[in-house]
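Exam prep: given the inputs below (a chain plus iron/sulfur cluster), describe the expected output before reading on.
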Amino acid sequence: MIRKTFVQAKNFLTKSKLNQGLTCNPYVGCEHGCVYCYANYMVPGRTDYDSWGSYVDIREYPNLDIPKNTGPKPLMFSSACDAYQPLEAETGSTRKIMEAIVESDLQIQILTKSELVLRDIDLFKKMKMVEVGFSIALADREASLFEPGATPPSKRIAALKELKAAGIPTYVFIAPIFPYLTEVIHLIDLLKDAVDYFMFDSFNLSHPLNRKRILGLIEKHYPKIYPEYVNIFNLKDRTFYNELKKNIMQHAEALGVKVNYLYP
Ligand code: SF4
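Solution:
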């Protein structure tokens, strides 16, 4: 059961260093509850990190006016939540924002793990610049462990194909790549015709609790690869990711697919 609270917020657009533009987070909290999420460590005033996925604050704004002279800045949905998490079907908060910016010059980039994004195809078709991406890293079984509240990856793939068929620019963010679990090359083959470009990333392990949560599940469900994870997570062995990076570059080049970001 999700704890829902309405909170007042000043602005729906905030400046971001991530994209040198703007971000919009209509929610604080995320029902998807990904075990590897690091947004839970960035919520001001909250230290109940383990309750991530069990609460969502729904932001209410005094208005949805775009400040004058904003121009064609990048706008990301979202940097610290999923704007299309299940609650969105009930509140329509993200939809209201999309309606408010539909005719703007903003370069709108959406990243989600929810097929609910398909609901807004009618608005995306009217936007000057928009692209919709899905994060996909696992097969359905593994995703049910590590991303328990999100749309299963098989449905995310189907949604990407539907968006592409509707003429919406698409991308996939293969992240976080789980060593020995994420079938990276298979995903490239599977999605090469459904997306305009690929991005790839490893884990953000900046918070020690994050590392502990992931390692705990790997040890329990995948004991054979647990020692490899200890090497990679705790001893910072980059051999796996360096080798994979070479394979990704070779495969992408052979297929002629565009890679917009590949982890360092
Ligand atoms: S979908 Fe994104 S914001 Fe939501 S829990 Fe997962 S990683 Fe965090």
